[in-house]
Structures are given as C-alpha cells and as structure tokens.
Amino acid sequence: MKLPIKPSYIAAVVLALGAIAWIFSGNLEQAKRHYGVTAADPAATKTSIEPAPAGGPEKALATVRVRRMEALGRVREITVTGRTDVILDAEVTAETTGRIVEIAASKGAWLEKGDVILKLAMDDREAKLREAEARLAYERIGFEAAKKLTKKGFQSEVKLAQEESELAQAKAELAAIKLDVERTTVRAPISGYLETLPINVGDYLKSGDKVVVMINPDPIRVVAQVSERDVPNLKSGDTAIARTVQGQDFAGAIRYVAQRADDATRTFRVDAWLENPDHVLRDGQTMEVQFRAGQEKAHKVSAAVLTLNDAGEIGVKYVDEANRVRFSKVRIIAHTPDGIWLGGLPDRMTLITVGQEFVTEGQLVQPVDEGSLTTGEDAPAS
After folding, report:
1. What is the second-level CATH architecture of the domain 36-70+302-382?
2. What is residue 21's predicted lDDT score, i.e. its pLDDT?
3. Cis peptide before 219 (omega within 30 of 0)
C-alpha cells in the first residue's frame, strides 16, 4: 500500500526549487553587469559561437570588455631614499704647540673664512722673533760690506758667498718664527658653522691635535643607492628632486654615478647636488629622491585591471588580433591619484578592462569595445 505524499512535502520541494532558480538568475545578472552587457547591448543579443572540434558541439564565446590603448612617452622617474651629506667641511688642527689662552667663537656659531677661533700663548716666541730680526739686520750689513770689499779686490769671492749664505739663513729663521707666531692664532679655513669645539681655555695643544670641525651646508649633496636595474638610465646632469619628511622640495642635478656596486647591497651610489642658500637642509637628513632620466613608453591604467598568471607574476590581459587572450608581465613605473603607469607592454594593445579574471590565456573571446582608440594619457582603463 503506497502512502500518500503529504502536501507539506510538496510545498517544501516547490519552495526549494524556486529558491535555487532565484539564486542562479541573480548570478547571471551580476555576471552580465560585470562584463558590461545589458539586454539592450548588441553583445547580449548576438550569440557568438566558437567552432568546436570535429564531431563536438559548438561553444558560446566569453564576452569581455576591452579598451584600445596607445602608449605615451613620459619622463622616466626613479624614486629612492637618500640622505644629505655636506660637501664643504674642514677639520681644523693645531699647527704649533701651546696653551689655549682665548677662545673667540662658540659652538654652532657661523664664522666667515679668516675669523679667529682661538689663540695660543706666545711664550718665548716674541723673544725669538726679536732675536731673528736682529740677526737678519747684522747679516745684511755684513753681506753689503763683503760685496764692496770683493768689488775692490780686497776680499775673495768665497768670503762673499759665505756672507750671502749666512744672510739667507737669517731670512729663513725670521720667516719661520713669524709663521710660528702667526699659527698661535687659529682661524676659520672656510666660511661655515663651528660644528664641534672639544677644547677649553687652559688646554695644551700639540701640533696636529684636532681643534674644531666646520661645515658649510650650501651646496649640499644627497646620497642615494640605486638598483642595478635603474642605474643604467642615470647620468651626470640628470635632474634630481629631493623631498624632506616635511614635504619641502629641493631641485638639483646628478654629479656622480658610481661604477662599482656596494658589496653588501649590490646597489650603486648616486650623488646629486642641491642648492641650499637658507641652510634649511642639514647634514644627515633623510630625503625622498626622484631622479628624472629621459623618456620611456608607458600606459596609464586603473589598478583594477592588474591580474596574476599561474606563476604568480603581476601583469595584464589583452586581446590579440585573433581575439585570443594574452598575458603580459608589467613593470609598475609610478602611482598617481588617477591611475598607475605601467611599462613593459606593447605600444598598441587591446586591453581587457572587465572580465580578465574569468578568461584564460589563449582562450578565444568576444571583445566588446568600450570606446574609440584612446591614448595612454587619457582617463585610465578601469
């Protein structure tokens, strides 16, 4: 005896089937919107058929939205992090011995070239100076007398030469003591800031002892490390824009590109000199440096078009002349508020802007053009 089917079971089955039909209809509409196909779109009403292998059924082509792109020449920008480094600095050392009797400058002060930094005690230098002056006067008189006698024949040429030698020696001794006296006053060798002053009045200095360090921050260089991929594009004279952490920009030019890589990082040192007349930049500051090196071809697109291939490489998908999907790796050149610039792509291409995640490389597709031919500088593909 067959048991009758309860009406509640029948109702449950009907509801379940209705729910499944509703879910699938929603996914279909969402896919249509994703590909940019509507009921009024010719691509939605026209059926595209991909020829199937002999004896097999024909298969409908996947529809993708595309945009025809043309690369634009733009300035190649290489952005790295660097630090400032003073170009003009001087380590001042004592050139004679003596005890410090006066310090005429303070640490951090700006000095002009030739300004007095400190003075050493004269000790017996004044006495030696007077002695050297007196001897020079005596030797000069002796030489003049010998010259007259030799001229009259009362003295030999040998005696005249001896007197001349002694005169020259007296002159040298006077010059040496004058130089030693002058060196008791230590002066600024360059215009700049007195960065260090590790001495005090009463300290005894020997010749060669470090006295102070002076730096002049104008001009100043910014030192950056550039990868081996980018360094071939740089040369002396290329424009450099350095930005502080506060957002202030300083313009300059490359003065040096290293020929040897750093052993640890395999990067190359690049120096750019910046004008710094107001001394805003200080030695050792962190800077974001942008080098501008010639022209390169690039496409500006929306980041939404980027995808990954099976190897995990970042790139974009495009359609070739046979309407088959192709994948191309890209190099991200720059980020801007309205898109990203990509390098490594063909100059002209039919970029897939919608549907790239649902098609595979080599697949035959039906492209739907979203507009006429555009250039890489127009609104980015999205």
Report:
1. Beta Barrel (2.40)
2. 57
3. yes
